[in-house]
Each structure stands twice: as structure tokens, then as C-alpha cells.
Specification:
The chain has two domains: 171 residues, 3-Layer(aba) Sandwich (Glutaredoxin); 137 residues, Serine Threonine Protein Phosphatase 5, Tetratricopeptide repeat (Alpha Horseshoe). 48% of the residues lie in helices and 8% in strands. The protein is elongated.
Length: 335
């Protein structure tokens, strides 16, 4: 596939921007994010509130505009694989900067999510101007699929900009970039998750209410109707773990850990501590504890421990490498 940078560039609406060869954005993408105080005291970007930073894009109808910083530049480059990102490079000392950014914001907003605008203050982010080899401000460039596309420098009439954006969208479409961001701004156009199956929704509602027993009952019913329902199986294991843990106070947790340490063959104590380990993120410790118990014991207690171990595998996730390791260790002690 031909990259946007190597395709014929749309005719400039104003003076053409000569990028003098390929623009390497990788150095900017890899730069560490500046500390929160960086840029303090600089004037806010044209069209933003006194607080500066990105505009509120969370409400319907908000402009599809973000203020470009070193911290979010990577995200905008990544976003250009979905929609073209128009970058307006401006400066406080340039009289025409504020007007151009406002015009671009209105035009981009009219495309209803097919374009996103990034406004970049080159005084606060000089590396960006250097990367694009900017000769004057204001200047407009675009990024499509991570590749720069020159647009124009200086002022431009609205109709010229619209014609240029139409060409930009054609370049983007030729490279498979045909997405649309929701009217609330970048990130607001993500598709809604499909509705949960009724029994899964019932379980979720019960979890929200703290009714883990009710959630477990809903998941069991789902498994009765569809035994191969992996999500219901994992959900059941998770809510049963939460149900067991909610009955343990901090003092009881400490006591059961002490008992498990003193009595390694106390099944209830070992299982309880394994629950605490899993819930606390000590997955290897929790799984290893039960595997070790199985290796030391036989009879009904061994089978009870094995069943609990399989349930905890579902809690952690079958694809987790720690589960794979525990499965290997279990096979060794069983066979």
C-alpha cells in the first residue's frame, strides 16, 4: 500500500509547506511525557478556556479538537490510523494563529467525526515544529496512518480549506483510513458494547448490589442452559471467590494465615489463604499453595483442593502464563 507521504500531495490552499523529505515522527512518539508542571505560565491555546489543555470533548456536539502536547502526541499519531488528524501549529506571537485555529475547528467539527483537529503551540512544543520543519506560523499539516501530509502555511479561506480537506480524506481512504469519531470528541465514538445475555445481566446487577450469592445463582443457571459458556464459568468462579472473601475480616485473615503456616495440611486454612493470595495479586503463591497441598495429601481432601484449584484457574484466566505453569506443576504431583 502506498503511504500518504508518497502520494501526490493535495494542492495547497496557501503557500505550500516544503517538508524537504520524509518527516520522522518516531523521535517525538518516544519522548517521555513532561512533568505536570511543564509549560506552566504559558497562555492557553486559541479558543480554549483559561485553564488551557484539551477542551472538554465529553458532551455531544463538542468540537473535535485536542491541544497537542508531548504527553498526548503518541495518542494522536495512533488515532491517525482511524481518522486523519489535522495539526494546526500556532504561536502566541502570530496574529493570524488564533483566527486560523478557530476556522479549522469549525470546519473540522462540520465533518462530524471524519477529521480531528490538534492545536499545537510551538512555543510550548518546539520539537514538533522542528520535526515538521515549519518555516512560519500558522501552519497546517495532517497525519494519516502515522505519516505526515503537508497542507498549507499562512492564512486560508474556508472554501480553500474545505477543498483541501476533501482531498485529504481521499488520500486517507486510499490508505484504508475511513473511521469516524463520535460527536463527543476523540474516544467518544467507540461503539457501545453489545447487551449482555439476560442471565449474565442478572448476575452483573447482583454483583453491583453486592449480592454475590445471587450472581452465582444466575451464572449457574446460565451454565445449566449452556454448559460451554466460558464467560459464565469464569464469572461463577469469580463471584464465588468474592463471596468467600467478604465474610473474612482483617483479623480473621491474619488468623487464618497463621493457622495455615502452622498446619500445612489444614485444607480449609490453605484454601482460604490461597483465596487471599489470588485476590491480593499474589497469583503464583496462591496457586502454588494448593498444588503443594495436593502433592502432600490423598483422598477426598486432595480432590476438594484440585476442584478449587481449577476454579481459581478460571478466576485468573486460562491463558495466563501463571495458570499454565500451575497446570504443569499439578500434572507432576498427580502423575
Amino acid at each position: 500500500m502506498t503511504s500518504p507521504a508518497s502520494r501526490p500531495v493535495p494542492p495547497a490552499a496557501a503557500n505550500p509547506l516544503n517538508l524537504r523529505g520524509a518527516v520522522d515522527l518516531s523521535a517525538l512518539k518516544q519522548r517521555p511525557a513532561p512533568p505536570a508542571s511543564a509549560g506552566a505560565g504559558r497562555p492557553p491555546a486559541p479558543g480554549t478556556g483559561a485553564a488551557g489543555g484539551a477542551e472538554d470533548t465529553g458532551s455531544a456536539g463538542a468540537p473535535l479538537r485536542v491541544d497537542v502536547t508531548e504527553a498526548n502526541f503518541q495518542e494522536l499519531v495512533d488515532l491517525s490510523a482511524q481518522v486523519p488528524v489535522v495539526i494546526a501549529l500556532w504561536a502566541g506571537y502570530s496574529p493570524g494563529s488564533a483566527q486560523l485555529v478557530d476556522v479549522l475547528e469549525q470546519i473540522v467539527d462540520s465533518y462530524e467525526g471524519r477529521l480531528v483537529l490538534g492545536a499545537a503551540d510551538i512555543e510550548a512544543f518546539p520539537q514538533l515544529a522542528q520535526a515538521f520543519q515549519v518555516q512560519a506560523v500558522p501552519t497546517a499539516v495532517a497525519v494519516v496512518k502515522g505519516q505526515p501530509v503537508p497542507l498549507f502555511q499562512g492564512g486560508a479561506e474556508e472554501q480553500q480549506v474545505r477543498s483541501l480537506f476533501e482531498e485529504l480524506l481521499k488520500v486517507a481512504a486510499a490508505n484504508g483510513v475511513t473511521g469516524r469519531i463520535g460527536a463527543g470528541g476523540p474516544g467518544a465514538g467507540e461503539p457501545e458494547a453489545p447487551p449482555l445475555p439476560p442471565l449474565h445481566q442478572k448476575a452483573f446487577d447482583a454483583i453491583e448490589a453486592g449480592d454475590y450469592a445471587g450472581a452465582a445463582a444466575a451464572y449457574r443457571q446460565a451454565l445449566t442452559e449452556m454448559p460451554a459458556d466460558a464467560e459464565a464459568k469464569a464469572g461463577l468462579a469469580q463471584v464465588e471467590l468474592m463471596d468467600r472473601l467478604q465474610s473474612l475480616s482483617a483479623a480473621e485473615s491474619d488468623a487464618v494465615r497463621g493457622r495455615a503456616a502452622e498446619e500445612p495440611d489444614d485444607l480449609e486454612a490453605q484454601l482460604a489463604v490461597a483465596d487471599l493470595d489470588i485476590a491480593g495479586g499474589h497469583v503464583e503463591d496462591g496457586l502454588g499453595r494448593i498444588v503443594a497441598f495436593i502433592g502432600r495429601n490423598f483422598g477426598p481432601e486432595r480432590e476438594t483442593a484440585r476442584v478449587r484449584l481449577l476454579e481459581l484457574f478460571d478466576v485468573v484466566g486460562p491463558a495466563d502464563e501463571r495458570v499454565a505453569k500451575a497446570r504443569q506443576n499439578l500434572a507432576r504431583v498427580l502423575f
